Fold each of these.
Amino acid sequence: MISKKAIALCATVGVALTGFAIATPANAEPVSNSYVAVGSDTLEDVVSSLANGSSLSGAAVRATTAAGSSIGSFDATGTIYITTKSSGVRFGRPNGSGDGRTALLRSIDGAAYTSGTVGAPAAVVISGQVDIARSSGSGTVDAAGSLIQVPFGRDAIAYAYDSGSTATGIDTIDTATMTSLYTCSVTTLGGVTVTPIIPQAGSGTRKDFMSKIGVTDATLGSCVQTGQEHDASNLGVNQIMPMSVSRWVAMNTGASYPKKKDTTVLGSLVAGTTPVTGTGTSMVPNAPYYADSLWGRDTYLVVQYARVDPTNAAYDAQLAALLDPTKGTSLTNSQTTFAAKAGSLKKKFGILAPSTTTAVRISK
């Protein structure tokens, strides 16, 4: 944990809101004239919506810098390479939480960066090209770490499957059974073969899910297939894949592009509790499911610690303000009382208030 002084640093500076460009969520990737965010697929649409501006909550909401410049949030998937800043170098697209944090570290330390995206250019120096990493899970806590993760919001993990599946009990799978399926010690439910899908390496959802079911890369079974996280477009009958509940909500409310089929449904990992309530545009997160000590999870925005430490010469007041949860239009605000608050917009993407607002230093 960090000191009280450091924990409070994000509450020291306000953020002005100017030049609204209101739109429904969009994933265009212009070169940024300000801060650049990369990383987690889980958070890509909600951060992009905050950066680009949206009225999805019923009022205009946009997070901008004090100078009115725009934040650039780059998706986890798309072209194999990106250029984030004017006259900047072209480098491989960071795909997932871990890859995003690595890109941020290489942007800080100047060492060559190689993206986890297949076919991306290797060993590119990307100094100063990344400012924020989106992370759907915690990094490695380190009191002396060069990064700091600031709670963004509360999410949860469930799993997706096809409603045409015939395997017994596929709609509610307990943790022990899920472990057996992903180690391939059990390959059927009710005599029907079930095929587990795991997200790509570098995915925060992959890391969280495997940790929660007690599976490592070494114990992951040979029957498990790999797919892009949160993309259930090709999910077949009697197949299962981990799914961020917030992403599922956003797909149904219209906040995010629906990477699923009409027959794709969400299964519960918490007995007696559904991940969501309501349907279609009225779907909302189910708070008791999100509060579950195992399957609920906090998500984060990660930045260089020195840039948000007011005692450091590298301190950036505008960046600190963007991460101040007390500011109504900061990236980390979770207030839902008024439609014009960032928290109200985030709820449309299935993101609730995090379990803590305490920022923690991490090493990677």
Amino acid sequence: MVLVLSLCGVVLLLALAGLFAFGLRRRLLQRSGGTFDCNLRWDAPAPSEKYDDEGAGGAGGASTAAGAAGGTAGEEPSRAAGAQGVRRGPGSGKGWAYGIARYNGDQIEWFRVFSYAPRPRRFLMRSRIEVLERRDPEGEEELALLSDAVILACSLEGTRVELAMSDDALTGFLAWLEAAPPGQRVNVA
């Protein structure tokens, strides 16, 4: 009985330590300022793509490698869209990852919320971001994203990326894009 109670106490302490580490990491990321909550869907399908019950169609079937030299667009290849029968299109709510974005000069560093990694998962370079459209969450996205989220579809070196953020964060993001140094191509549709 004492062994079971000791084991339960150790598990509880480890769980509390893990929660504390999540909170500490978030506080350290926000310490330097310039952060905002930003959900990300990498290699998102275009709204014109058709989706059937098998999950095929455009980018919905097999994934492509997210590729840019030097890790400027991203560090990891995109994952498969999902199993057979899973719909992954605009409004499906699939593929979104919760995160925190931080401005750092001419790039945005994107960190996963549910991770202990101190380094950003993705880098979004200002000179390579092209805004395609702005829309409100549709269908299952309303449940998958925060209640006040606005979705901004962008192209990043040929990869379609969707960012979901609050209206205030979107205003700051678009102002940051427009504040590019002279001579830099900026498309803020």
Amino acid sequence: MTAPYDPEEREKVVSKLPSALRRELKVRAAQLGIDIKDAVTEGIVAWRSCDPLPPVDTSGGGPFSTYLPAGLYGEFKADCKAKGVSFAQGLAQAVRLWLDSHPTARRTPRPTGARRIIFGNQKGGVGKTSASAGVAEALAEMGNKVCLIDFDPQGHLTKQFGFDMLGIDDPSLAKHMLGEAKGEVRDLLVPIEEKAFAGRLFLLPACKDAFLLDAKLATTRQVRVKETALEKAMEPLEKQFDFIVVDCPPSLGYTMDTALYYARTRDEEEEGTSGIFIPVLAEDSSADAYDMLDEQIQELSNDMDVLIGELGFVVNMYDSRRGWVATSSLDGWKELGDVVAVIPDQSEQRKAVRLKQPLLSYAPDSEQADAMRKIALKVVS
């Protein structure tokens, strides 16, 4: 049967939805790889042809906008009037109907182990920590089991979640990489206990001894330890997780080499399955830093005969009000490669860090949170 509307011709629809329902819709659509406007369209089509549904509590609803096919929009409004419900109530029922008929796919462990996603840039202050944390949260929110590694000796990620760095004499990831640790690396993991991803997101905290890692890797006499140290340390955990996300240090040393090698495309993997996202700013110094990182990636790829996938740029703290410098720089990144997301320079992330809360729990409906989900969707697609 031909639809009485053209799905390519859409008009903007503005209404209200309860925040919990709006957030559930965003997460489920991301889990299933469906655009929100298509999910809402499917829900409305199903709602129009079904028996009356129980009311949805729409109290405290917040703004919600999407794009519906023009013909469908008009007919839906008429149906709401005929059924004696408000447009906001009809929309809420349609969204609830879509959610109930599109359950989350059951997670099955990957036979090849976790996918490895690293966030790296030699330049500091570009948002590596916020991007790696936000994307790990979004992946866990989608139902994946995620290990988030604070691989930066400054420990900003660890502190951001409200944890203390491991002591200099404690077991640590660095000691496991160097063969100096007792116990299991899994013993270092701490859970991020938030409702949206409880039981699925774990942090491997930073340790103060990580400042010594580069020097110790440089002096080791074992063949290829510089490149393979992180992989060997993390191998026992890989079957337990869907994704391992690494917040890399702002350096181009041996520590970065071992992270890059860890994110390479393995023999059994498809290209783009694992790799590096590169957070940048819309200004010239980020471009200079990227040139050095790209050179390091190419040299390591050639020396080791491996493929290290550059998964795209994440333009962070973007504000078009800064004028031509910002907008022209953004255009330059788009010309250079795939810009996966543009994260606006807004206060939610800074407030979340100050309060030591995950962004997707503190401000789940913010533009920054949506950008993290967009990157996560790129990862899982």
